[in-house]
Amino acid sequence: MPTQVSSVYVHAPFCARRCNYCDFAVQVRKEGDLEGWRDAIAGELRAVQEEGLFALAPSLATLYVGGGTPSLLGAGAMSALAALLGPERLRAPHLEWTAEANPESLTTEVAEQWRRAGVNRLSLGAQTFHGPTLSWMGRMHGPDGPARAIGIARESGLTNLSVDLMFGLPRRLERDWTADLEGVLALDVPHVSLYGLTVESGTPLARAVVAGKEIPVDDEMYRDEYLLAVEMLGAAGYEHYEVSNFARPGFASRHNTAYWDGSAYLGLGNGSHSYADPVRRWNLADWDDYRTTVAAGLLPEAEREEIGPTERGLERVWLGLRTGEGLPVEDLNHEQRQRVARWVTEGWTASVEPRVRLNAQGWLLLDRLAVDLDSGAVG
Amino acid sequence: MDTDRIRNFCIVAHIDHGKSTLADRLLEGTGTLDQRQMRAQVLDDNELERERGITIKLHAVRMAHKGKDGQQYEFNLIDTPGHVDFTYEVSRSLAACEGALLIVDATQGIQAQTLSNLFLALDANLEIIPVINKIDLPGAEPERRRDEVVDLLGVEPDSILLASAKEGIGIEAILDAVVDRVPPPKGDPKAPLRALIFDSYYDKYLGAVPTIRVMDGTLRAGMSITFGNVEAKYEVTEVGCLRLGRIPLPELGPGEVGYMVAAIKEVSHTRVGDTILDANNRATGLLAGYQEVRPMVFAGLYPTDTDDYEDLRDALERLRLNDASLQYVPETSIALGFGFRCGFLGLLHMEIIQERLDREFGVDLITTVPNVKYHVKLTDGSECDVESPTALPDPVRITSVLEPIVRAHILCPAEYIGNVQKLCHERRGIFRGMSYLDPKRVELDFELPLSEIVLDFYDRLKSCTRGYAALDYEFIEMRPGKLVRLDVLVNGDPVDAFSVIIHADKAHSHGRDLVRKLKELIPQQQFAVALQAAIGNDVVARTNVKALRKNVTAKCYGGDISRKRKLLEKQKAGKKRMKQVGTVDIPQEAFLAVLNLGDD
């Protein structure tokens, strides 16, 4: 029996430029290849159907189009996607259909046609409002790009908006984090995501770090910026509902929640990941490899793994702790509860009963605490 | 075989001076093994021995040699271990010989280890045949070495043979010298059986198989035998000699060297130096020289993963089957859990056991700081031996603590005298004399506490003499010293595995070095970690490992949970390799670092 999935991710691989920190499955070109993309996704859908591991639910709960830069695919991309998935699956009143966009490629035409196709949530990669830092990153938009794009989105009737910001950038850029947070508050959007810059190997940033030209941010500044954001966003009425996500009441991303609560999801497009308990698998990352494989009628799978009890346990602890929902304390053994008791005295928890929930201080140590708690599972 | 045609001899040499290569050439030269059977250095068949270039287990190989007189001779080449830890074993295998080939490296000359074994050979009244080896090497100085040997032994210069085992030069002359100069063994074939055990190995089918030298009488299958120092009786099922394996023979007579199989379950019954006797016709006197095995160095061995305790116990049991000198008793450490306190002949012996546990049995180990055995006199008049720092009684109950003192002989080029003296002085050494072997090389004698030698002394000696120094030592006596126990507290809890018994004058600097090193090695944790070194309640050094400030990668992109989980698994595995002491994870290197404090 195929696993029914009601959460689907679709990857749009094209970017006009690659950002200096990016290690994603990205294809750099001036304009997105809509035709090629549509054919490839259609091909993969056929292969997935034949395989019989996943089946699309008659009515999807969430659809997320990420990238890359989906807005580079142009105004017709979302209606084309709807046609592939089946318009009847996208009619649920509560469907959350998110598409990512970059400020420079979100035009009125794109926004309007996307909304008409069914997109009801837009995630905008702002990253910073500091001009020099934007050019350092290799972003194409200027400091006022996000405000302009938000205006376009709203005029087109898209109001469920999210903005991405990056913190933990090298000190020498002299980016003013307070100003950036004020900038995002001024946009008055219902959802904000914060990402700490990570130096991924193989990126231009990593090469600069290795060459000694760039110094990654120190832990103290990382902490300070994170905690400042938590404070300012909290004061502005945002709920800190996951380690890196903030939302006004009712605006938490339901698609991401599917990743965290262990639901099945299907990822389409190069480099995307799918999960149907106990299988997790991911697609070929390279766009050309991916499209030739699906063109040949094959599944573009790069690798897969079976999640066993040990792996599932660790994932559950880690994913549970990253959310504001936390983990039910009744699932923990005596040893684990003792460890949690120590967290309480260190001031890392928001609550323990009936669920263990980390606060911002605890989230700064999330990985360590997850390992700590999971190691206690057999104690 | 008529004893007149038997020649039992060994090779005395320093490590790397070509003992194994020469042994190979003798095997070849006598036709005992042909080229096809030769592996380089066949005698060192233990992988570890080959790698370290040292001989750990003893062997005896029988060779047939046709002398210049046309007669057939039986040669028994008895291998000896080449390290200071095994002096007693060396003395027992020498007792099985009548002669010794003294190998001197033509480039390096006589070394401390050679000297000490040479003196053992002279004590055993062996006929010494000096051989200057490696004469083919560019740096060879055979004339100078010849003079050295003449000075040392008072022999005629032309009795010294020149050879290159590697090139096969001088081998015939050595074989002839063995016939002509090594005396044939003596022994009474009609007397009751007396056979010397000079080695033993464990075979899983045959049990403990001792390597022996018959002194008097005859040993043959079917006999009932017993031992001089062990209450046990066995029936002999097989006797024979050793080549590349066992060659069964009808009997072993006086002067003959070989093995005995008697379904002996424990190697502890076949003790080196013990006498095998005829159970039905016991000889009245035992062979002289037997000693109980006396471990000199002690350390705790703990599995890194507490689940491996049973594996460690099994591995130690199996190792002891082959090595009766290994001693161990169960021990519990607050920090490390269940493990064993082990007694070793010396540091090298300890290292060998550690490596074998790791390599052959796959047990991941934490070894505590090695220590010696102390003798403690208490205020109530009682006395006790202390083999573990944690067992040292409360200072108020102690009248005095005695520690083993050794006489150390250090051989080095004269230019390093200053360095060696400085090192020995730092190690509480008392200078006892100095003599020049030749104008360039000198032997220094010191009395040193053994405890100062077991901690990295040898490495330091090597590094302060650019690798030229050689060390040998023997136990002299137990002597009172100003000794205290230094503890390390991690977040207020003493970690027993870091405790050491140390001279009071050195406790402070050791404590400071130790906490500094631990600070480097203990990774940041979610909590701050306080490190203290203390003597009793007196804290002599302290420092802190700061708490981890951040350990999170915030974003989880598009369902890519697997990659992220793998990073966490790595962290988890790293954590598992560490020892949890209270809430603090201490990596294995921290326990090892205590052994090498002087490195930086």
Number of domains of chain A: 2
Strand order of the largest sheet of chain B: 11-10-16-7-8-15-12-13
Q: Regions of chain B with pLDDT < 50 over 5+ consecutive residues?
A: 48-58
Biggest beta sheet attributes of chain A = 9 strands, mixed
Biggest interface, residues from each chain = A-B, 46 and 28 residues
Instruction: Count helical runs of chain A.
Output: 14
Overall 3D shape of chain B: globular
| Number of E-type strands of chain A | 19
The largest sheet of chain B is: 8 strands, antiparallel
Gyration radius of chain A, in Å: 21 Å
Span between N and C termini of chain B? 61 Å
CATH level-four homologous superfamily name of the largest domain in chain A: Aldolase class I
Report on this structure.
The complex is a heterodimer of chains A (about 375) and B (about 600). Chain A has about 375 residues and is α/β, with parallel strands linked by helices. Chain A has 2 domains: about 5-260, TIM Barrel (Alpha-Beta Barrel); about 310-375, Orthogonal Bundle (Arc Repressor Mutant, subunit A), CATH 1.10.10. Helices cover about 40% and strands about 20% of the residues of chain A. Chain A has helices at about 35-50, 75-85, 110-115, 130-135, 145-155, 175-185, 205-210, 220-235, 255-260, 285-295, 310-320, 335-345, 360-365, 365-375; strands at about 5, 5-10, 15, 25-30, 55, 60-65, 95-100, 120-125, 160-165, 190-195, 240, 245, 265-270, 275, 280-285, 300-305, 325-330, 350, 355-360. In chain A, a hairpin with a 2-residue loop joins strand 14 (about 275) and strand 15. Chain B is α+β, with helices and mostly antiparallel strands. The interface of A and B includes residues 243, 364 and 375 of A.
